[in-house]
Amino acid sequence: MSTEPEQVRARVPLATIAREWGRIGCIGFGGPPTHIALLRRLCVERRGWLGAAEFEDGIAATNLLPGPASTQLAIFTAWRLRGVAGALVGGCCFIVPGLLVILALAALFLAGSPPLWVRGAAAGAGAAVAAVAVQAAGTLVPASWQRAGGERAARARWLGYAAVGAAAAAAVGPWLVLVLVLAGVTEAVIRTQSAAAGPGAGAGDRLRSLPLASAGLAASGGLLAVAWVALKVGALSYGGGFVIIPLTQADAVDHYHWMTSGQFLNAVALGQITPGPVVQTVAVVGYAAAGVPGGLLAAAVAFAPSFLFVILGGPRFAALRASARVQGFFTGAAPAVIGAIAGSAVPLALALQHGWQYAVLAAAALWLLAGRRGVVGALLGAGGGGVLVALAGGAV
After folding, report:
1. 275 φψ region: left (φ > 0), alpha (ψ -120 to 50), beta (else)
2. Do 174 and 253 reside in the same domain of the chain?
3. Do 210 and 94 share a structural domain?
4. For residue 19, what are the contacts with CB-CB under 8 A and spacing of at least 6?
5. What angle do CA 58, 61, 63 make, to 5 degrees?
6. 24 lies in which domain range?
7. What positions belong to coiled-coil segments (predicted)?
8. Quick check: 286 pLDDT over 70?
9. Cα distances (Å, whole numbers) of residue 50 to 15, 55, 117
10. What is this structure's pTM?
11. Domain boundary residue among 53, 79, 98?
12. Rounded CA gap, 374 and 362, in Å?
């Protein structure tokens, strides 16, 4: 990847970066595909700040990193224009608008006695979330399957990693991070044909400490536990924003009891229908745990690794993409993530409490999977259906 010409950085004021990245943060409904399209239109087509090939390199490089890929792309493009200052200004302006909106909605939807229409909207939108998870997993399959290669053994391992990820998301909860990373380590070792030279030994020792750390934080609770859950999302998740669903569900609902299953469904729905990164769902989890301070802390911890990865690792992205070990790791981790996202649909569907919600789930599945329509439309339609049910006297 080429180094950034100084004259380009000099002619893009920080105020311009703040305005343009803030605008994308306000209108970026629809998740990563929308964010990437808006950034490409701004940086490549409209302003000509980056070349098309350089922008595509940025997408490829940020997709190698754990955490929310479209957020990292927003930070990366701003970094290419104005270095560290640009990354901080652009990234924050991209994140903050959606964060403010989702915290306001969290206060409304998680209130002790929300209005009837709010309860109906929450129950309806939450009913569609399991279908959203399956659709999100499906969109990731083609690229990951192609990346695995054409060998029969490689394809068999891909299916195995996906199956293990799905089972882990549906059954083991807080251990999911360990399963995802071990899938990546296994594939990296196989592809480099040397367990000693690959990332396996040291990574395995560190990863075995993760469940122990989680147990310790469970005992302390409070903001430390919020920070731990957010850190897993920001620094230890592979596959972008949607992997927040299996990574946080068990912690938020079963482990720390911050939310009911229905409230977690609401949190995921809010993360999908608000602008900006999907990972801002974690702010709702933090809000449920400790109010506004918890929501702000969760967001700060979840997004901090993205800034660090880009600012510290940006100059090394070319070497990262060329590393056989890194490529092997993500070749194994990606199908496990896809399986985990799909597998999270099982507990999400089981969390539904009313018969009409299953009808909404079926309709959302047809809209998303058969009709190949948008997520935002599905959730808004499901929420509207829930309002009608509530106003008609149905159980919400």
Report:
1. beta
2. yes
3. no
4. 93
5. 105
6. 6-98
7. none
8. yes
9. 18, 6, 46
10. 0.79
11. 98
12. 15
Q: How far is CA 348 from CA 12, 81, 256, 371, in A?
A: 45, 41, 17, 22
Q: Please check whether residue 23 lies inside any domain of the structure.
A: yes
CB–CB of 240/247 below 8 Å? no
Compare 370 and 136 and report the one with higher pLDDT: 370
Domain identity same for 85 and 147: no
Q: Is there a domain that residue 121 lies in?
A: yes
> From residue 3, how far is each of 17, 58, 77 by CA, in Å?
19, 12, 13
Q: With the CA atoms of 190, 244, 65 and 41 taken in that order, what torsion angle do they form, in degrees rounded to the nearest 10?
A: 130
Interatomic CA distance for residues 396 and 394, integer angstroms: 6
CB 149 within 8 A of CB 131: no
Tokens (6 digits) for 342: 């799909």
Count of domains for the chain: 2
Distance CA 223, CA 290 (A): 7
Residue 46 to residues 2, 79, 228: CA-CA distances in angstroms?
Answer: 21, 18, 40
Does residue 341 lie within any of the structural domains?
yes
Which amino acid belongs to residue 394?
G
Would you state the structure tokens that stand for residue 23, as one six-digit string? 């605008």
User: 297 and 237, same structural domain?
Assistant: yes
pLDDT in tens, 152-185: 999 999 999 999 999 988 776 667 778 888 998 9
Query: Could you count the other beta carbons within 10 Å of the beta carbon of residue 254?
Result: 13
Is 1 within the bounds of a domain? no
CB burial of 56-70 (b: ≥16 within 10 Å; e: otherwise) equals ebbbebbbbbbbbbb
Domain boundary at 98, 119, 144, which? 98
pLDDT score at 177: 78
